[in-house]
Amino acid sequence: MNIYFWNINNSIQSFNLAKDIVSQENESIFIVSEFWDIYDQINLPDSFGFVNDDIHKRVGIITNNNFRVNFEESKKYYLITSLVFNSIKIIICSVHFLAKNKDPDVQKRIVEKTINEINESLNSYDSNNKIIIGDFNIEPFDDSMLNIYNFNSVSSIEHRSKLYKTYQDVDYDIYYNPFFSYHGDLSAGPPGTYFYEKETQTQPWYIFDQALINSKFLNNIDTKECNVLEKLNGIGLTKKSGRPKTDYSDHLPIKIKIN
Length: 259
Fold this sequence. Notes:
Elements: E1 2-7, H1 12-24, E2 28-33, E3 49-52, E4 59-63, E5 70-75, E6 78-85, E7 88-96, H2 104-122, E8 130-135, H3 143-146, E9 153-154, E10 164-167, E11 170-173, E12 175-176, E13 194-195, E14 205-206, E15 209-214, E16 227-228, E17 231-232, E18 235-236, E19 254-257
Parallel strand pairs: 1-2, 7-8, 9-12
Antiparallel strand pairs: 1-19, 2-4, 3-4, 5-6, 6-7, 8-15, 10-11, 12-15, 13-14, 16-19, 17-18
């Protein structure tokens, strides 16, 4: 089963491209974010579903008839859903966090508050098969991604056998983040998922689009199929320079595969 995510930057052609992937692949869902400006243009056949928070229109999941994706709960910056694949119940938290472009200090406080809400919600489910995926608007090495009080994520698969991090007699879930590996020119694909040039910073590539996989679920993940994508359905999403084609989005899509 393939799980895709893409911040489509309010592009209806990108939404339709995501829909085409779900139409052609029997076992896939496609999570999109940032569709509030095009919501009224979305037109899906009866054989499709679109599970979303229709108030904030930040995150939604395109599905076909092969999967029933169940809405569980949502708040402004995340959507929690569940589905069953190969008789396994999977909890998927799709996120689109607040960006830093106004006040980084405010963003940090709101992001950490949101992470704590997500952790509290995910801990209430009876399944350890948990995935958090989306546009985090923070890098993999941000303290909010690494700290045990937040997402407690790691870059190495060696933690496959380690189910918890224990600190002061409290057990904290561990999440594996395969997209740590996509930083820079030595990555297996593009050097990031988002390209933005700041006036005061030379480094333009960021890994904002990521997937966190609970360590208890790692044996079900094909880590070789955790990718940043430069093409969808044969259509190139990058320029000759390697930068995203902004008529599709300023973000590149990502994919993970569940066995």
